[in-house]
Design goal:
By secondary structure, the chain is of the alpha+beta class. The protein has helices spanning 9-12, 17-30, 43-57, 61-65, 107-110, 130-155, 162-166, 242-247, 317-328, and strands at residues 3-5, 33-36, 77-79, 85-86, 89-90, 94-98, 175-180, 197-200, 206-211, 217-220, 226-228, 236-240, 257-259, 268-275, 282-283, 315-316.
């Protein structure tokens, strides 16, 4: 089962740090996923976001396509069911891509930095609150991300401000709303089982996920078995991404997960927030001298790995995530901003 951290707010007050850091460390080593409650994020912020999210996805396809990301060079906006791929297979979901709101005068926008710029918002009157609700939520989750990284740093024997000073002082924070329609058929046309999102690991440092009460998220444990990650009221699910795994040379590993759509008439809404390094960060694996009982000290061929990772060479985060997103939306590659070499 997934571990639950019940007193996360103590990290913010710097009390009981060793206990919480130990819990985080155990969860990161044993599963790579864990629940957090008493997280300090306003429940009203979460409920408003989910209410507007459901309202948007229940609109006509014409309204949703008015902010389709096909009209956007930085992968912001709406995509239709099947519009995003995982391992070359269309996911049975639709979604909205958001990020930090940057206007045309921002240096990163002027430089046409990939995945940076303004968001696309629905203009209809009933969605006038959407920008404030989304951006306020992102701000709260950014604060939570810093708190979690404090605990992760301590769990690795580092100073509490190690990551905030060295790597995540200005995090890159992609944000998504994913809507998984019920799927009574459950297979692709060729008979292969269909998933809301197929088996994958996340690309960055941390993912902080809020989900409704429908269920469907599955996590692969260290033995290779798939376990359910059922909804827990007033909680977030946190998981490790590829960049954190590379930073710590596999001491913590990014855990594969997937979503199975419900066959009944229930549609699932989930909202993953990604707390990542700055886009131009060079991720240099750290020499922590930690022994890993689960991965046999930096063995990156364990059963829970979806792809081999090189723990010996630095990796440019922006290039890494851009390539991953382009793989998910191959039709949009030509129109998207590129990294200047």
């Amino acid at each position: 089962s997934l571990e639950s951290l019940e007193s996360l707010e103590s990290l913010e007050s710097l009390e009981s740090l060793e206990l919480i850091a130990q819990q985080i460390g155990n969860a990161c080593r044993e599963v790579g996923f864990f629940y957090i409650i008493n997280h300090g994020v306003d429940n009203q912020s979460i409920s408003k976001l989910f209410s507007l999210g459901h309202q948007f996805f229940e609109q006509s396809i014409e309204l949703k396509n008015s902010i389709n990301m096909k009209n956007n060079p930085i992968f912001r906006g709406y995509f239709e069911v099947g519009g995003e791929l995982t391992s070359l297979r269309p996911d049975h979901k639709e979604g909205l891509y958001f990020g930090a709101e940057l206007d045309s005068t921002h240096p990163l926008v002027i430089a046409k930095t990939p995945m940076h710029g303004p968001n696309l918002w629905p203009t209809q009157l009933e969605f006038k609150e959407f920008p404030n609700v989304v951006l306020n939520y992102m701000s709260e989750l950014t604060k939570l991300g810093h708190i979690l990284m404090t605990g992760i740093g301590l769990s690795l024997g580092l100073k509490h401000d190690f990551f905030s000073k060295c790597f995540t002082s200005e995090p890159f924070t992609p944000f998504r709303l994913f809507y998984y329609p019920s799927d009574p058929i459950g297979t692709h046309e060729d008979g292969i089982e269909r998933w809301g999102v197929g088996k994958h690991t996340d690309y960055g440092v941390l993912t902080i996920l809020a989900q409704d009460n429908v269920g469907g998220l599955q996590v692969q444990n260290r033995k290779g078995d798939w376990i359910e990650a059922p909804p827990v009221p007033n909680s977030f699910i946190v998981n490790i991404g590829d960049m954190l795994e590379i930073w710590v040379k596999g001491y913590y590993t990014a855990t594969p997960h997937r979503v199975k759509n419900i066959r009944s008439e229930k549609n699932r809404l989930s909202v993953p927030f990604f707390f990542d390094p700055p886009f131009d960060a060079l991720i240099t694996p750290l020499d922590l001298n930690l022994k890993d009982s689960n991965n046999n000290n930096n063995n990156n061929n364990s059963t829970n790995s979806t792809n081999s990772k090189n723990y010996d060479k630095p990796i440019h985060y922006g290039s890494y995530i851009l390539q991953k997103v382009q793989n998910n939306f191959p039709e949009l590659v030509d129109q998207s901003h590129k990294i200047n070499q």
